[in-house]
Amino acid sequence: MIEARGITRTYHSRGAFTGERTVHALRGVDFTLPKGGAVAFIGESGCGKTTLGKILTGIETFDGGELVVDGVELSKLSPRKRAPYFRRIQMIHQDPYSALNPTRTIEQILGDPLRMRAKETGGASSASGVRARASELLELVGLEPDGVLPKYPHQLSGGQRQRVVIARALTVDPEVLIADEAVSMIDVSMRLGILALLHDLRERLGISLVFITHDVATARYVGEGAELHVIYRGQVIESGLTDDVIQGPVHPYTQCLLSAIPIMRGLEEPGPDRLAPLAPLDEKVATDGCLFAPRCPFATERCTAERPVLEAMGESGQLHACFHPTARRVVGVEIAQAAV
Ligand SMILES: Nc1ncnc2c1ncn2[C@@H]1O[C@H](COP(=O)(O)OP(=O)(O)OP(=O)(O)O)[C@@H](O)[C@H]1O
Ligand SMILES: [Mg+2]
C-alpha cells in the first residue's frame, strides 16, 4: 500500500533569539506498509514522528526520497493528481480537544465530509442519507448515534471525542489511518478502548495503520506481525517485528527507551548492567558520526567519526544502526509487557 524510500525533510528557520537553524526532521526513512497491515514508529519528542505523519497525508512536503502509494510514485505527479492518493490516507491527531470545531454539532461535523464524499461517489447526499451514514460510522466507532449526533464537542469526554475524530476520518473511506499519539491525551482508562477500536478497524475494514507514539506499551498493542521502527533525531536506528525489538533491543537508544518505562525503576542507580537515563538532547551538536553517540554510554572513537547505517542482526530481519549492537539486559521490559 505505502512504500517509503529514503524520505528526507530538512527545515531551515530563522528566529530572533535562536538565529539561523537547520533541523533535520527526517534523514532518509524507509518502510513498507502492506495492505491491511500495520507499522509503528516510536521515538522521543522532536524525533520527526509528526513530520513523517504529515508527509504521508500530503500536509507536508518532503525534500528527498520516494513515496510510493499503490505502486505510484507521488512526487512525480502534479498536486492535483496526487490529491486522490493522499485522500486515502487520513491522520488522527494527538489532541481530540482542538481537532473538532466547537461551534458545530457532531452531526454537522460528520455531515460536511459525508456530503462531499457522496457527490464524488454518487452516493446518497440527502439529509436522511447523510444522517444514516453518520449514524453507521458512529456505531462503528462504538458510540451511540442518537445520543451523540446532536451534541457539541465540549459535551463529550476526551475518549468520545477521539472516537468522533476517527469517525470523521472514516467519512472518506480511507485505506490507511495514521494515528499520531492518538491516545496520549486521553484518560488512561479510555486508552485501551481506542487502541482496541483501531485494532478492530484494521481487522473488520482492512484499514492499514501507521501508529506513531513515544510509548512502548501502546506501540506493542498495535498488533502481532507489525513492524516497529525506532526513530532517533530523524533516523531509523532500529527496526524489526515489534515483539523482537521490544524483547531483544540491540541499539543502546532502544534499550534506553525501554528501560525508561517504569519511573520507579528509573530512580535506581545505574549499575553495570543498567543504562543510565538519557541526558538532555542538545540539538545544536552537529556530527558526522552516530547521532546517538553524545548520549551513548558505549560510544567509541569510531562512533563519533562515522555514522552507522541500518544493517541486519542475525536472521530475524531485525535491523540496527549501531557499531556495538549487543543484547543487554533491559530493566522494564517485563513491565512493558504487563502494561498491555
Ligand atoms: N514547520 C517547521 N519548521 C521548522 N522546524 C520544524 C517544523 N516542523 C517541525 N520542525 C522541527 O522538526 C523536528 C521534528 O518535529 P516533529 O513535530 O516531527 O517531532 P515529533 O517526533 O512529532 O515530536 P513530539 O513527540 O513532540 O510530537 C523538531 O525539531 C521540530 O522542531
Ligand atoms: Mg508529534
TrEMBL record:
MF (Gene Ontology): ATP binding
Keyword field: ATP-binding, Nucleotide-binding, Transport
SUPFAM superfamilies, A to Z: P-loop containing nucleoside triphosphate hydrolases (SSF52540)
Domain ABC transporter residue range list: 2-258
Keyword Nucleotide-binding among UniProt keywords: yes
Gene3D superfamilies: P-loop containing nucleotide triphosphate hydrolases
NCBIfam families found in the cross-reference section: oligo_HPY
Protein name, per record: Oligopeptide/dipeptide ABC transporter ATP-binding protein
Organism (species): Streptomyces sp. 900116325
Source species taxonomy: Bacteria, Bacillati, Actinomycetota, Actinomycetes, Kitasatosporales
